[in-house]
Fold each of these.
Amino acid sequence: MVYLTRQEHFNAAHKLYNPNWTKERNEAVFGVCANENWHGHNYDLFVTIKGIPDADTGFLFDVKVLSKIIKLHVIDQLDHKNLNMDVPFMEGKMCSTENLAMAIWHQITTHLPPNVTLHCIKLYETARIYVEYFGE
Amino acid sequence: MVYLTRQEHFNAAHKLYNPNWTKERNEAVFGVCANENWHGHNYDLFVTIKGIPDADTGFLFDVKVLSKIIKLHVIDQLDHKNLNMDVPFMEGKMCSTENLAMAIWHQITTHLPPNVTLHCIKLYETARIYVEYFGE
Amino acid sequence: MVYLTRQEHFNAAHKLYNPNWTKERNEAVFGVCANENWHGHNYDLFVTIKGIPDADTGFLFDVKVLSKIIKLHVIDQLDHKNLNMDVPFMEGKMCSTENLAMAIWHQITTHLPPNVTLHCIKLYETARIYVEYFGE
Amino acid sequence: MVYLTRQEHFNAAHKLYNPNWTKERNEAVFGVCANENWHGHNYDLFVTIKGIPDADTGFLFDVKVLSKIIKLHVIDQLDHKNLNMDVPFMEGKMCSTENLAMAIWHQITTHLPPNVTLHCIKLYETARIYVEYFGE
Amino acid sequence: MVYLTRQEHFNAAHKLYNPNWTKERNEAVFGVCANENWHGHNYDLFVTIKGIPDADTGFLFDVKVLSKIIKLHVIDQLDHKNLNMDVPFMEGKMCSTENLAMAIWHQITTHLPPNVTLHCIKLYETARIYVEYFGE
Amino acid sequence: MVYLTRQEHFNAAHKLYNPNWTKERNEAVFGVCANENWHGHNYDLFVTIKGIPDADTGFLFDVKVLSKIIKLHVIDQLDHKNLNMDVPFMEGKMCSTENLAMAIWHQITTHLPPNVTLHCIKLYETARIYVEYFGE
């Protein structure tokens, strides 16, 4: 069993704002992250899969194909977008890094071939803050 | 003469959109960066000053004071903001990294003491794109 | 269950020196790290907590609060200090990165709220050497 | 139980080419990585061991000795070499990062003292692609 | 006048070997870099251009177009190639980082529009060694 | 003319403390950096030389020889040392990064061969603070 990780990135706008709360409560809980006019990040995404390498290729999975799957189901949906307004799979969810990492897991896991398993989604919001999700 | 650099960062939303142009022309020129609903970045800012170190301290300038000047006149104006909507010193300007670097220069240069000179503003928009401005 | 990590850093002096040994044995075992006059490091600290995100905020835990807990109980005790001389919670312990990571665990773990669990302390001594401790 | 990691690196040439296949099939499967005239990488290697620190030193294991073991059994065999032609322990294997990480595990694991256990080999092929192997 | 930098990368094999010298002299001068069977690197390339930003776009130059120029005239010629064997513009030259940086300058400089000037080619061979060339 | 840079590093203890001043004044000016019991850093050092590459080797200068010169005259003097107590060439000087960078320049410049010129000493004290000195 080996683990293979591919790093990708996307740039997006968001705000942390619970629509069921008053503006004052949002600002009290989320501080500057609740700015109505949005802010944004360069997100760094690490996708880790696991399984047994193929004897003929030495590959667990062709990393170029993994990159295409991530691009189609995640990057193209998130890059240069507003996470609160433009992303169907984030609709109705708070745009925290925690929720975003879990949503990315579900975007990828069903598109992998049967011999590989998604192991981890690691998502950096800033250089000093990241979230990991292992699907459970 | 020595050069002293302090790195800071801020997270902001923006879009590249010329209000004098049609939506179509904006999309043709700026591509996904023209997304009406904004996108954003983790900007990394490097401020370099130059001068002669003081004999008693060995310092060109107290880097904690430099950091406070940058915070007051730049970071507090830009961090968790929308560069197109929330920033007086960017009003009426296209929010390109080039224009932002030049505007940051003017925010800082008048607040330095007479014995130090601002040398360079270096601004990363993404990990692979940066702009430098030397004031001329 | 998601995992949230916050990176912090501190700068400190230390030496590796067992007071029960002769100077010669200390130098034989620890080499240049036993220099009586100290040396020092920029330590990078990664604190990982785990738990279930809150439905209303999307947060496992407010990362600004996590940062304050780390600052109060770890960074303020270690930053710009001598690890062998100035730190009550390292008293009587060898100042190895291993022991320091374990001590940092105990400084933080009792100050977290009941819905989050400390998962890992990862501590870089240099860019190429780090220690991880998972509390067991 | 603590985990200690040491990072090393080596620069090597390789190609991905299955000698049992035609040139056309190799190019179809491996693309530019099948270039007959080779290409190469700066590999970054992270070796993680685990165990209980010694009470007298505070060390799990002297990281300088760990570095020497890695140098003797891995770096000296791989650095400035052609992975397909010059490395006895890769003979007959496809030179994928997956196979290389597993081979490095076997080069190191038998040379560690009884009180430490090899935990992980993490190998970066490029800045955005890495493989991890935990020995099972 | 602003300076805009775009980072790209390529992976290639090479050796340092002067064909006018004996094998012994090559090994004496170039050491392990003279290995007949090649070695390789992940090269990081920084291309810096300078000029006056356009008033309507705020851009010195569209960084996506700059990236395409670099890709067409440099990356496509060097990536997953053998620098000594596969690259017409390196023919007859020693494959040092110095010579490669100067050759990359000449590949790019003639393909830039008249309002921008190539300022610097910065090329990392390893994480700790880089060369800069300013065209003079 | 090309510029060649080699990165090295060292770990050292220091304090910022002017012996002609009272303890109170030192603390007022230098804050936590004046801690009598020292603190320390992982310093990153970039040495840049310039000149014309040799036609037979393609080298400006053998980077392994440059590394040895830096090691002998700088790293061996500073690594795992107390900058205030253990370093003859810092005697009588304030141990600021500014003064240290200038002193490193003088340690290296006289040991280079006539065909290369020292261009820049760049010294990181922390990941976010660095000094550059160009010899004038």
Amino acid sequence: MTKISLSDKEIPTHYYNIISDLPESPPPPLNPETNEPIGPEMLKPLFPKALIEQEVSQEKRIEIPDEVMEIYKRYRATPLYRATRLEKHLGTPAKIYYKYEGASLTGSHKLNTALAQAYYNKQEGTKTITTETGAGQWGMALSLATKFFDMKCLVFYVRLHYKQKPYRVSYMRMFDAEVLPSPSNQTNIGRKFLKEDINHPGSLGIAISEAMEKVSDGTIKYSLGSVLNHVLLHQTIIGQEAKLQLEKDDEYPDVIYGCFGGGSNLSGIAFPFIGDVITKKKKVRVVAVEPESCPTLTKGEYKYDFGDTAETTPLFKMHSLGSDFIPPKIQAGGLRYHGAAPLVSHLVEKGYIETMSAKQSDIMKAAKIFTQTEGILPAPESAHAIKGAIDEALQCKKNGTKKTILINISGNGFLDLKGYEEFLDGKLEVK
Amino acid sequence: MTKISLSDKEIPTHYYNIISDLPESPPPPLNPETNEPIGPEMLKPLFPKALIEQEVSQEKRIEIPDEVMEIYKRYRATPLYRATRLEKHLGTPAKIYYKYEGASLTGSHKLNTALAQAYYNKQEGTKTITTETGAGQWGMALSLATKFFDMKCLVFYVRLHYKQKPYRVSYMRMFDAEVLPSPSNQTNIGRKFLKEDINHPGSLGIAISEAMEKVSDGTIKYSLGSVLNHVLLHQTIIGQEAKLQLEKDDEYPDVIYGCFGGGSNLSGIAFPFIGDVITKKKKVRVVAVEPESCPTLTKGEYKYDFGDTAETTPLFKMHSLGSDFIPPKIQAGGLRYHGAAPLVSHLVEKGYIETMSAKQSDIMKAAKIFTQTEGILPAPESAHAIKGAIDEALQCKKNGTKKTILINISGNGFLDLKGYEEFLDGKLEVK
């Protein structure tokens, strides 16, 4: 069977909290003024109480609210595919499976957490949610989610990608979201960077600072599309579904490749499997694939650092290239982040997650092979996972080993076609 | 249940040929030189034998080849949704259901026939398929299909939309298709129009002429994305699935709205239901919705006319605005055609299909309401069906009647966002 589906009844009813299975919790965020662990009160202006509770929860399973599940069922379970045509093209004895989150309403996995975050915000009286977005997938997801839960949305869109991917701006505007290129002239930090360079390309770090600056009086809250524990938590529905789908083929992966930017896609597909490793039920290699030009896990230092450029967040223990690092102008905007999810960094340190990086030109080549064989155009971010899977499958061919490989196509690439055009024309700025 | 799925086993195994149920066949195409019905030999240079047989078949059910079905199962059955959030927004007692063909690999229903046509061409030795495309959805579908069946693809893309929707060009190129703006300098007819106007916006009629001019020596064949009987036939899988899905909700539509350009979307969703009307099993109204600026069915004359602008096709009995009609520059490029599927015209004449038209600005407004409530961004073409459904639902509200309305969202609008941007900015060229 090439496509493996789940019925509505089979969709997992809970998020999986990997922290509950860890023998040792990740180091806590610190207050930069005192260097003491932050308490919930520091997060209260930013997030609704329910999400702060999830951020520090030790519960193994956290129930998906009915109102969120109802919307999930409009696009979930997303299909799991066996990449039969890609396997044949590569001539590999390996089996390659891919989960396809590009089938979500907005075209990426970001909607999974956007809906949950919008729901909890609405429950607690939020009127407007501010956020940043890199490639724009997250902004699209939150625009839909806030509209569905009858709130306003203010998006700071990294200027480079605002220009690279203008269709995503129009998409957000179809949901009445207000979208500003970041750095913008609407915040202090934005004006500071615009003063340095009126065409500043921006970065996720700057956009986060701008969005956080807009938080106000309990009715304007902030939302993050990756990095934090509760965001990764919401994405675990992906891996849980994938596990059930693989069971229908009597399979369990030997290795999982996930693209890595902030960590939400990798965590979503891999955490339910890493949980099996921690609890010694199964063995599976997990590999984070990041852009060579933004090598957070492979070359960053594991240390306490700020999550944003203006240094307004708490300090997070994570791999970081420095909060002032501005990544090169690659197409995979969702991966242009100086830091990493603390939880993922912790799992890398503990040996549960391996890391690798790849060149943009090789990523785009992998994307083209995948498109031509599987008929699905992946987002450039997702193509990092494809690159990992193809390399592994070719290694299997060389060694004659029959591994089962799992990846997540976290988003489709319909709105990344300008980037693919530059690739096809040999005009990519970053090789 | 908001989303109704079908299992792989429930996918219909045959195309439904409505001609078999018609008491009277539609008037045949004529040879323009003799005014006699054309024989299969006139079509032989253009199409493989199997498709010519389907074009004139009287069989009720035509089996879907295994090789095609295997690929269908990567995206079929497409979901059928109950538009619960739209209904609530409108406050209507009507039930609105929509089939979502935008979930196909290429984002539209066009893939259903592209795969079938590519398969039969490959079987009979075709090396290259040439075609025209309006909005680009058809070109995308054929690019994928030819690559899957290991052939080359040459696409004449109506210049207006080639510029309006450049992402679709890049998409086709990801599958190695050669894409030319039409009129192009690669054909006699193209050069003729470029001489008149170097920036000629083009039309489907001109692009068809160019593609047909490229047909050669049995290895370069031609393919059409709409209008012809065999194309409409392949799309009937949509309506057959929808019928099975509605049965799971114990429903049968009172009325079906379909957007109308050449006829393939309307036929796909409606023919299996019109078959029930012809055979007196059920009653259902079917309404074709077309752009006010290209009013083929509502204002065209029912007569024999050419299918293309260069007058190289046979004569078809159809509603036509004249083969030299160049439609205004609307976003719904898939509906910019001077003619109509002869089979649809016949059914309009016989009273099985009603017609209406709508202004572009109203179409875009309907699209925005649908996007905000259902979370699915429709192609502007599909938004014509939405407009029909919304008007009907509001009429139901006024009258307190509980009709069941069915539409097909034939394509998603991710690559039409430039058009939506013009709408949001109040800059649409055609009102």
